[in-house]
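mind reviewing these C-alpha cells:
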Amino acid sequence: MGSFKMHTQIYSGIDSTNYLKDCQLQKVLVICDPFMEKSGKVKRITDILAIGNIPYQIFSEVVPDPTIEVVTKGVAFAAMLQPNAIIALGGGSALDTAKAVRQIYQQAETDAQVQLICIPTTSGTGSEVTSFAVISDPSVNGKYALVDDAMIPDVAILDPEFTLTVPSNVTADTGTDVLTHTLEAYVSTNATDFTDACAEKAMRIIWKDLTKVTVNGDNAELREKIHNASCLAGMAFSEASLGICHSLAHALGGRFHVPHGRANAILLPHVIAFNAGLELTQDTLALKKYAEAARLLGVQSMTERTTVNLLITGIQRMTQKMGIPKLITDLGVDETEFIEAIPEMAKAALKDKCTLTNPRPVTVEDLEAIYARIYRGGF
C-alpha cells in the first residue's frame, strides 16, 4: 500500500510573507543566520511581529552545515523563551536547524506544541516541506541525515522576493541540488505516481529556467518558478526519499566542507551512469526511468542507453555553463587528502539513510569507485 502525505500548508508568491499577519502567534523564536540579521532581511519578519505586538527573540547563530552545538544552543534559546511558534528564515542550514530545534525541544517539553513556519531564502533544499534535516558533527567530520515525520514544517512561505539578490553561484549550486532531488526521487525504490508528478514538474522547470536565472537573477517571475520547483522537488523526495548521490555528497561535504549543491552537481553524472548500469549488458529499471526523465526534458535518442548518455552530457553542459567544475580537485581539495579520505567517506555514505532507496544495490567498493571518478574524471 502506498501513501502520499502533505502536512505543510504552502503560501507562495511575492509578498506571501504577509501571511504571518494571519497566523495565531503568541511568542516567537526566529531562527536565521547572522547575514539575515545584519542585512536587515529578518526585519521583514520582525516588523510584522512588532506591528502585531507579538513578543519574539532572534537566534542568529546558524552556520553552514549546521552543527550539533548550534542546534543545542537553539534548543536552550527555545527553553528560555518557551515559544508557541518558530519561524525559520534562510537557506537549508537555517531551516534544518529550526526543524531539529523544534523536534528536540518538544521531546524535552512534552506539553509544548510549537508551530514551525519555514521561509526559504534560497531555491534548493526543499527543506520547508520535508521530514529531512542534515546535521553535522565536526568532531568526526560527519554529516547525518535525520528523517522523522515529526520534523515536517506546518507552514511554508515561498516568497521569491527573498531570492532576488542571491548570488549567481549560489543560485547555480542550489538549483542543481533541486535537479538532483528530482532525479533521485524519480528513480527511488519508493517512488509513486504522486511523487513522480511533483518530480517531473520540478525537473522541467529547472531544466528550462535555471541557467536563465543565474544570468538574470532579478527576474522575479523566473525566481518564483525556481522557488516553486524547489518546493515541488522537496515534496517528491520527502515521500520517495533520495539515493546515493546525496549519501556521497553528505560524506564529502562533512569531510571537505564542499557546498552541498556543488557536491551533488559534481557527483550526479557519475551516479546516473552507475545507477543506470551503463556498463552492464542487461537493461535495468533505473535505466528506463532515467530515459523517461530525459524524454520529458526533450532529450532523446534511438536507444534508452544513448538517451541516458545524452542526459548525462546535458547535465554536464548545464553545470559547466553555470561555472560548476567537473572535478573535486578544481575546488581546491588536495588530491592526496581526498584519496586518503575515500574509504571512510564511502563507509559513511553506505550507512546514510538515503542509500536505502537507491535504485541499484551498492557496496563500499562501488561508492569508492564513484569518488575516484570525481578526481580522475571520466566514467
In short: The chain has a mean pLDDT of 94. DSSP finds 13 helices and eight strands in the chain. Residues 193-215 form the longest helix (23 residues). Strands lie at 9-12, 28-31, 56-59, 85-90, 115-120, 132-137, 142-147, 155-158.
